[in-house]
Design brief:
homodimer, Rossmann fold, five-stranded parallel β-sheet, two-stranded antiparallel sheet, 9 strands
Chain lengths: 151, 151
C-alpha cells in the first residue's frame, strides 16, 4: 500500500456535484491510485445543490498530492477571495505532481498562481470572470480541455 | 411552493455516485420540481466508492413522489433481498407518477413488481443478474434506455 499514489479531491461549500463525481467515477478505477477527500473544514460540505457530502480530511493536513483535483461551482466566487485557502492551495499545488481543475476551479488555480506561464481553459459561460484572475496565464478560449506539461 | 413537484432520490449503502449525480445535475434545473434525498436509514449513506453523502430524510416518511429515482450500484446486490425495502418500494412506486431507475436499480424495481408488464432495460454488464428478477418484464437487451407509458 505504501506505493499507492494519492488523488486528493478538494471539496468546498458550493462545489458542483458533477465536476467532482464525474471525474471520480473514472479515477476510482486507475490502478495504484486511491482517492481522498479534503475540505477547508472537514465534515459535511454542501454542494451547489445543497446536497451534503462528507470530506473526512482537513486541507490543513495535506502537504502534497500525486494528483490534485479542484472542482468548480458557485462556491468558487467566494473562495477565490479567501486568502487562507488560496495561500494553502498555492503551496499544495507547488508540491503536487499533477494539478487539475474543472470549470471555475481554474479561477482558484489562477488566483493561487498555479497557472502562471501555463496554457489553461475553463467553462465558457464563466470565461470572462475566471480569466480575470490570471493575467499571466495563456488562456485558451475555444478548448474544451487543456493539458500543459508536468510540474 | 405548494405547486412544486418532488423528485425523490433514493440513496442506499453501495449506490454508485454517477448514477445519482449525473441525473441530479440535470434534474436540478427542471422548473417547478425540487429534489429530496431519502434513504432506508437517514443520515450518512456510503457510496460504492466509500464516499459518504447525507440523505436527510427517511424512506419511511415518503408515500409518493412525482418522480422517483432509484440508482444502481453494488449495494443493490444485498438490497434486492431486503423484504422491508422491497415492500416499501412497491408501495411507493405504485403511488408515484414517474419511476426511473439507473443501471442495477432496475433489479430493485423488478423485484418490487414495478416493471411487470413494462418494457425496461439495464446495464448490459449486469444484464443476466438483473433480468432474473423480472420474468414478467419485457427486457430490452440492446436499448440504452427505455421509456414505457405513464403509470
Amino acid at each position: 500500500m505504501s506505493d499507492e499514489k494519492e488523488i486528493a479531491v478538494i471539496l468546498f461549500d458550493g462545489f458542483e456535484l458533477l465536476y467532482v463525481f464525474g471525474p471520480v467515477e473514472l479515477l476510482q478505477f486507475v490502478p495504484h491510485y486511491h482517492l481522498e477527500f479534503y475540505a477547508p473544514s472537514p465534515g459535511k460540505v454542501s454542494s451547489s445543490q445543497g446536497i451534503e457530502v462528507i470530506a473526512p480530511r482537513s486541507l490543513a493536513d495535506l502537504e502534497s498530492a500525486d494528483l490534485l483535483l479542484v472542482p468548480g461551482g458557485k462556491g468558487t466566487r467566494a473562495l477565490v477571495n479567501d486568502q487562507d485557502f488560496i495561500g494553502r492551495l498555492h503551496l499544495l499545488g507547488k508540491n503536487s505532481a499533477t494539478v487539475v481543475s474543472v470549470c471555475t476551479g481554474a479561477a482558484l488555480l489562477a488566483q493561487a498562481g498555479l497557472l502562471s506561464g501555463y496554457r489553461a481553459t475553463t467553462n465558457k459561460r464563466a470565461y470572462h470572470w475566471v480569466t480575470g484572475f490570471g493575467p499571466d496565464v495563456s488562456w485558451q478560449p475555444s478548448a474544451r480541455w487543456v493539458q500543459d506539461r508536468s510540474r
